[in-house]
Amino acid sequence: MASTAVAAAGLVFGTASSAQATGHGEGYYGVWASGVNVRAGGGEQCYLYPSAANCPTVQTTVSSPAQVWVYCQQEGAQSVGGNPYWVWVLTSSGHRGYMASYYTDNATNWIDGVPTC
After folding, report:
1. What pLDDT was estimated at residue 40?
2. If we measure between CA atoms, which residue out of 29, 1, 21 comes closest to residue 107?
3. What is the value of pTM for the model shown?
4. Alpha-carbon span 84 to 78, nearest angstrom
5. Do 99 and 29 contact (CB within 8 A), yes or no?
């Protein structure tokens, strides 16, 4: 099912570089949950050690079946669902910020091919 969603994403967004569910670099990744916060604010602490506390401003929320463009990933100051990584994303509404990587459609915590922020 995940590969079907990713394939559909390539058609919707018109790009051959859409990321796969196993993680192949920057690109679009699906969000599997509802009401996922995309966070920013908090200055340098947010960018170096993302977490709900260090990134107190909720820019927007995203819900399945939305996709976000993942630019980079960073080990955070807070684990979500056992996943310590946070991803810097761009939403379809144009908001940028950190989102817990736990909520992305990816087989592992670390997304292969996505650089460190």
Report:
1. 95
2. 21
3. 0.80
4. 6
5. no
